[in-house]
Amino acid sequence: MVHSSVLGFPRIGANREIKKVVEAYWAGKVSAEEVTKTAAEVRMSNWTELKQRGVTYLPVGDFSLYDHVLDHSAAFNAIPKRYQGQGLNALDTYFAMARGHQANGVDVPAGEMKKWFDSNYHFLVPELDETTDFKLNYNKALEEYNEVKALDKDSRPVVLGPITFLALAKATKEAREGFQPISLLPKLLPVYKQLLSELKAGGASWVQLDEPILVTDLGASFESQFVSAYQELVPVSPNIMLATYYGRLESNVNFLNKLPVAGVHIDLDRAPQQLDSAIAALSSTQIGLSLGVVSGRSIWKTDFQAALKLVEKATSALGPERVVVSTSTTLLHIPVTLANENKLTEEQKDWFSFALEKASEVATIAAAASGSQDAKVSAALEANRTSIAKRREFEKNSDDSIRKRVASIRPEDYERKNPFSVRREAQKKLNLPKFPTTTIGSFPQTKEIRQARAKLGKNELSEVEYEEFIKKEIESAVRFQERIGLDLLVHGEPERNDMVQYFGERLNGFVFTQNAWVQSYGSRYVRPPIVVSDVSRKGPITVQWSRYAQSLTSKPMKGMLTGPVTILNWSFPRVDISRELQAQQLALALRDEVIDLEAAGIKAIQVDEPAIREGLPLRRADWDAYLGWAGNTFKLATAGVKNETQTHSHFCYSDFDDIFPQIQRLDADVISIEASKSDLKLIKTFKRYGYSNSIGPGVYDVHSPRVPPTEEIKERLKAMLEHLDQSLLFVNPDCGLKTRGWKETEASLVNLVNAARWARENY
Ligand code: GLN
Ligand code: ZN
C-alpha cells in the first residue's frame, strides 16, 4: 500500500482568520487567549479537512502566527539580547522579533527578513553568536501532535532541520569576526535531541525534518555535518523523513544513503529527472522515498497519468511499502481552497487545484498507485484525464500578434539611446537638489481607501464617485509631500489593490481569484493573479493617475509601474509555455505604458523589480540563463524612453552581492534598494563593482511601525557617504509605505527630509 502525505499546509485560515486575530491583538483589541484559541481552531479545521480527503500523514507543528523560522528561533531560545529584559512576555517578545516594538518606553527594531529560498515567503533570519544559549523553551511540534490526537489520525510532526536552520542564520553584530552559525551545531543538537525524544515519547512514529538547504549549492559543503548530526539524532528520534524541496539534490543525493534516516523526500515537480538518481542512491538501503509529485508551488491541476508514471517507477524499484506520494513542498505557497471561489468560470475552475484540492490529489494518486479498485478513485482518474485534455485544448488558442511581436524584438530594443553619463546631463531638467529625497511609491492604504474599493466592487460607489475619491487621495498625498519637503514626488498608489494584481487586471491573459490568499510575511498576505493565456495591454493603465498627479504640482512626479519579472514571479505563471516568453509578453505591454507615460509629461518613471532576486534559481548553474532573460525583459520595458526621462527601479529583501553585475546591466538611471538592515554590506558592494548610476539605499525599515530618529538616519547617510559618490545618492525609505499608518509615515519622512537637508549642508 502506497501512503500519502502533505509536507505542510497554509496557516492563514480559509478566511484569513489568523491575520484578523493577530492584527487585532497588535491593536490591543483582543487578548492573547483569543489568539491561541483562533489558532487552535484553524489548525483543527485544516486537519479535519485533510483527514476527510484521505491523506495518510497530516502535517503538524508547521503552523505559525508569523513565521516558522522565527518559531524555531524562539523555541530554541535564540533570542537576540536586544529583546531580552524589556519586560515583554513570551508572545510579545516573539512579535517584537518579528516586527519591532515601540511602546511604553521600549524601542527595539525588528529582525532581518529574507526571502525563503526562491519564493515570495519571507522568514526572519535567526541571529546567533557564541553566547547564544540554546535551550528548548517549548515543543511546538509535540503540542500540535497532541492536539491532532483528538481526530484519531496519524500525523507527522514537521520540524525545520538543524543544518538548514543554521545555514539560514546570520551572526549577530556582537559575534567575533568570521563567526559561522554552523559552528554552533554541537550546541544546538542537544535541543533537537530533546525535541525529537519528546516526540518519540509522546507516541509519534514519524517526524519530518525539513532540510531544503540540500537543494542549494551550499548543501554540499555541509555533508559532514549532515552525516554526524543525523547519526546523533536518529537513535532518539521517531522515524525521520528528511524532506528536501524546491529543487534538485544533484550530488547531495550521493550522501543521503549515508544518513541513517528512514525516508527521504524529493521534489519531483521542480526536478522530475532526479527520480532515477534518488532510486539508484537508495535502492540498496532500507530508506523510503517520498515523491513530491503534486506541486506545492503551482495552482495547476496535477496530471495524474504523468504523476503515476513516476510513482510506478519508484514502486517497482523499491516496493510500494517504501514509497509515499506527497506534495512537492509545503502547501504554504498556494491558497487554501478553490471552494472559496465563486467568480471563476467552471472552465477555469477545472484547470486549478489549491491546497485542499492538492491534498485530495495526493490521496487519489496514492490510492491509484496501490491498485485501488474503488469507484471513487477511478472516477477521479477519469475526471482528471478529461480536465487535463480540456486545458491542453485551450492552450492552443495563442495570440498570434503577440507571439509575432515577441519574435521580432531587436537587440537595440533593449538599450537606452545613450549611456548614463549623457542621460544624466539631460535629466538635470528635473531640477532635483543634491541628495534628492523620494519614496518608493505607495502611501498608507488606509481603511477609507480599502472601503472605497470594496464599495466600488459592490456597486455601492459608482466609477465616477470612486475616481473622485482616488483623485482626492492623490491630491492629499501630493500636498503632504510638498508640505514636508520631499523632492521627487509620487502619486501614492491609492488606486492599487496590489502592485501586481492591479496590473494583471488591466492586461489580457490573467484571471483573478476572490479569496486565494497566500502568506508573504507575517500578517501580510497576497492574492497572486493567474496567467492563463497570452498577455497583452488592453490600453493605458496608469497614465491618467500620473498625469493628474503631475498636474497638481510643479515638482516632478514619478510614474510607477511593476516590472515584468515581478509581475510574473508574483503571479502563478502558466506551465505550458516558458516563463521567459511570459515575461517578454509582459515587458512589451509595459514598454508601451512607459512610452505613454513619457508622452503624458512624466519625467521620471519607476519600474519596480523587487522580485527579481527571488526568481533566481537555487543552483548557480542556472543563474545566467535566468538573469539573462529576466534582465532583458526589464530593459525591454524601460529602454524605449528619451535621454531626459529618468528611469528608476526598486529592489527589496535580498542580497544583491552575488548578482550585482546583473543589476548594473539593467542600466536604470536610479535604483532604490532595501538596505537599512543589512549594515553597510550592500553599499560596499556598490563600491566594489564601481556602480556608476544613481542609487538610493533605503535609510529606514518600513516593515515595522517604528519611527527612525533623525540622528539615526544621519548616521546612516554618513556611513553611506564614506563609500559612495555623493552626487549619486538619493535618500529614500527601504520600500513602499502601503502597510504603514499615516502617523508613523509622516514622522519618519519628516526625519528623513531633515537628515537629507543636514547632508546638503554638510557635504
Ligand atoms: N512601488 C511599490 C510600493 O511602493 C513597491 C513595492 C515593493 O517593492 N514591494 O508599494
Ligand atoms: Zn520594496
From TrEMBL:
L-homocysteine binds at I440, G441, S442, D608. GO terms for biological process: methionine biosynthetic process; methylation. Residues 435-757 form the Cobalamin-independent methionine synthase MetE C-terminal/archaeal domain. InterPro entries: Cbl-indep_Met_Synth_N, Cobalamin-indep_Met_synthase, Met_Synth_C/arc, UROD/MetE-like_sf. Its EC number is 2.1.1.14. Pfam families: Meth_synt_1, Meth_synt_2. The keyword Amino-acid biosynthesis applies. Catalyzes the transfer of a methyl group from 5-methyltetrahydrofolate to homocysteine resulting in methionine formation. HAMAP family: Meth_synth (MF_00172). This is 5-methyltetrahydropteroyltriglutamate--homocysteine S-methyltransferase. It comes from Marasmius oreades (fairy-ring Marasmius).
